[in-house]
Amino acid sequence: MPLPIVESWFETRTYGGDITLIFEPHVIPNIRCNMWHVRGRDRDLLLDSGMGVVSLKRHVALVTDEQHGG
Length: 70
Prior knowledge:
Layout: E1 11-15, E2 19-23, E3 34-38, E4 45-47, H1 57-67
Antiparallel strand pairs: 1-2, 2-3, 3-4
C-alpha cells in the first residue's frame, strides 16, 4: 500500500534561463539531493541524484515545456 505523498514533491529555481535546479523540499535537509536540468542547443542534460520517492519524468517535462515556451 503506497504512502500518501504531497501533490507538489519538487520545486525549481532557474539560474540564467538555461540551468534549472530541481530539489525535493520535503526531504530532510541533511540528506536532500539536488538535481539539475541544463538546456542545450541540441540536447538537454539532466543530472538526477534525487531520492526516487516520486518520478522525476513528469516534472522534467513541465520544466522543459516552460523553458521552451510551451
